[in-house]
Amino acid sequence: MRYLRRERRQGTPPRGRKLQSGLDSLVHCHSHIKTVSASEKRYIEIVQQHWETVYETKATDQVSWFRPHLETSLSLIERATGSNRAASIIDVGGGASTLVDDLLERGYRKLTVLDISHVALDLARKRQPDALAKAVSWLHADVTQPGLAIHAYDVWHDRAVFHFLTSPEDRLAYVRNVAGAVKPGGHVIVSTFGPKGPTKCSGLDVMRYDAAGLHEEFGPRFRLVESSREIHATPFGTTQQFLYCYCTLG
Predict the structure, then answer these.
(1) Cα–Cα distance measured from residue 179 to residue 151, given in angstroms and rounded to the nearest whole number
(2) What pLDDT digit, counting tens, does each position of 217-249 carry?
């Protein structure tokens, strides 16, 4: 669901990549293949194991980002799709979130849930009746790596992935993938920690944004329609400030 920070130091390989499906040593990108070094592959494995351990050792409702229902996300997705329940929606870093449950309940069927953690995806999948689980594409993948289908999605949703990207290279790769995967005129909903949000999550450094700063990361192709802030109550009795930005892709 989340990322480790990537740092570049002499003799130190990148640290902030999500796992490409299957931990393969080759990352497929449409018409070409990118070779992943042994050291980078090892760091990818470490990143994956971090999040597998989180979901193996903590109950779904005992992680700080848990919320029974993502009301703001649901409202923005329904605003983006209107009455079109055939809209194609990807939930990036969806993990074990209940968003997929609520979207299925509302009649959406073209759903993709992308996450680094097999355990998290399995938790979400096993909550669904077989017929509904088969209607969802459960994608174990790295959102900063190439490989997502081109112009495949009407709506891109991300709650609490982008703020883990502390490396400019990873943020640029993420934005490129959004621009490639979302249909022209499509909708992009991204939620990060706000300017008064935490500086760490799950023991990892994170970024904090206001609306102008987050929009700047995405650039002028993304038209900012609306932004809002939300106070999230964690299962532990603390609060976290989140920022939502809703954009359309030009």
Answers:
(1) 8
(2) 999 999 999 999 999 999 999 999 999 999 999
Q: Could you tell me which residue, 19 or 185, shows the higher pLDDT? A: 185
Domain 60-249 has CATH 3.40.50.150: yes
3-class SS shares of the chain: helix, strand, coil, % to 5 = 35, 30, 40
Residue indicated by tokens 């990873």 = 170
- Name which of 118, 120, 183, 124 is nearest 148 in CA terms: 183
Sign of dihedral through CA atoms 231, 77, 83, 133?
negative
Residue 185: other Cβ atoms inside 10 A:
10
Give the number of C-alpha atoms closer than 13 A to the C-alpha of residue 15, restricted to the C-beta side: 14
Alpha-carbon gap, residue 95 to 245, rounded angstroms: 20
**Could you please report the per-residue DSSP string of 130-153?**
HHHHHHEEEEE--TTSS-SPTT-E
Stated pTM of the model: 0.85
Instruction: State the DSSP H helix or E strand holding residue 42, giving kind and residue range, or none if neither.
Output: helix 38-57
Question: Is the sign of the CA dihedral 173, 176, 182, 185 positive or negative?
Answer: positive
Domain chopping of the chain, boundaries = 60-249
The sheet with strand 222-233 has its strands ordered as 136-140, 111-115, 89-92, 153-159, 182-193, 239-249, 222-233
Q: 160 CB contacts (<8 Å, ≥6 apart)?
A: 1, 2, 65, 93, 191, 192, 193, 201, 242
> 40-89: per-residue pLDDT in tens?
678 678 878 888 999 999 998 999 989 999 999 999 999 999 999 999 99
Residues 6+ apart with CB under 8 A from 129: none
